[in-house]
Design brief:
Low-confidence stretches of chain B: 326-333
CATH topology of chain A: Rossmann fold
Largest sheet of chain B: 2 strands, antiparallel
Strand order of the largest sheet of chain A: 6-7-8-3-9-10
Number of strands of chain B: 2
Oligomer: heterodimer
CATH architecture of chain A: 3-Layer(aba) Sandwich
Shape of chain A: globular
Strand content of chain A: 15-25%
Order of helices and strands of chain B: HHHHHEHHHHEHHHH
Radius of gyration of chain B: 21 Å
CATH class of chain A: Alpha Beta
Order of helices and strands of chain A: EEEHEEHEHHHHEHEHEEHH
Strand order of the largest sheet of chain B: 1-2
Radius of gyration of chain A: 19 Å
Amino acid sequence: MRFGGLLAVNELDLSLEPGQLYGLIGPNGAGKTTVFNVITGVYRPTAGDIRFKEHSIVGERSGKITRRGIARTFQNIRLFGEMTVLENVKVAAHCRQTADLASAVFRTPAHHTEEERVDRQSRELLEIFHLEPYANEKAKNLPYGSQRRLEIARAMATLPRLLLLDEPAAGMNPQEARQLMDLIRWVRDHFDMAILLVEHNMKVVMGVCETVHVLDYGATIAVGPPAEIQRNPKVIEAYLGGA
Amino acid sequence: MRALVRSVVLVAVLVLLNALLVGKLVPGVSISPYFLQILNLAGINIILAVSLNLINGFTGQFSIGHAGFMAIGAYVSAFLSITFGESIRSAFSFAPATVQDSVLLLVVLAAGAIAAAIAGFLVGVPSLRLRGDYLAIVTLGFGEIIRVFILNIDAVGGARGLGGMPRLANFFWIYLFAAATVAMVTRIVNSSFGRTLIAIREDEIAAEAMGVNTTRHKVLSFVVSSAMAGVAGGLFAHYLMYLHTNSFTFIKSFEIIIMIVIGGLGSITGSVLGAVLYIVLTEGLREFAQYRMVLFSLLLVVIMIVRPGGILGHRELWTFFRRRRAAEAPAPPAVPG
């Protein structure tokens, strides 16, 4: 991925399998979020290919990519602030519904059954993420940690096979971060999906990920299980730091 | 079923009200033609405001070309009723004159709505790629282009204006379509599709990332909104029986914007209130003669200072009468550990 003269991400080879948790780490500006933006179609890669379930998804709009089964959260929380917590999740569920403009106007019986189903499923999702008590609160009024969880819940409502989490633990206290780790593992186990997470909190990354990719200046400098990565001298020099 | 019962009741009420207002229900009781006209223009304004609110208030795409789509609906329907009015009537010559009128009106309104919808699609596809100020300027431009285009078509009178269409619209039809517009927009907004529109308003990138085809949904809501403006235009044409492009300048678009902004962007009842308030204020201030518009703008400024989000804000009227749950209910429990 190149922006003018800046080579943001280069020579990145990621292959992700369902049921696995992957971590993507690296110093600020290494290109982690750019990787997410390239995968989800926000940027069109200047070279290379992205295949998802055997299909090349390069050049597709991000909505289409999400409908194929890749969902994401955002580093700087992007909830629908004026909408309720429940509505936030329901918006994401829309892409798995048949409901459209016509069914909205004519209110067919099928529309009602679907609406009830989505309501039930969305509430179940909120329960998993401990957000049920806030269901009718405006998303912008939620405490920070809960907003982060709502972002994940909302992404889950699109029924992804690959979930991209951009700094899910940012701004969380140690206790919240621990709960988040349990939640991420639980989600992976119950929904059989691949999860790729970008995170600066090493406790979280090393705690949940099976494989860690380390990125520096847009290129992979190390790949491997957490224990190995923690001992890798190149990673220590570029990112983790000595001592 | 409930919707059917409601529609029947609505039609009955409107028929009775219509008869009452023109003095046919209770002998000696009627409304002055001046007030009746204000009432009817308010109804047309309601259609315009509520439909514009779908795109501006709920989808968050600031469009200021609504008068252009109204003009298309007005001119297309007027042209059709002038040109083909007699042949459509004669096809229904077996039926009473009222039925002939109604059929003719419905046919030309449908044509006007379709024409406005097509124009909405053609304008919407390129312009809805833009955001914020840019979209506003482009829609303003398209609105003017439509007006000047019509001004230069000699078949619809050009600068002379277009007259000669029959008076088909009345209180009944105007308020029937106003009610239909309110019902349709309410249903759209409170649906799965409507939620995606509001999501686009809140954060377009996030909405797209959640699998919403934002371009398609924006264009759809723009098309629906334009079609409704086309209906309003058709009613306008067949109520005043004379059209001139001067009625559809960008000033008209701004009037509709003012209605939805004082009522509250993103509130349907707010748009209805704004539409009525606008005409009440502009007509009510007539006695102040040359100070009329000065007072009007002052009032607008006061409203914007007191209630910056519009009179109703994002909320609907009935939510103000309901007990405020958020204030009275206990605070939500802490996040379980």
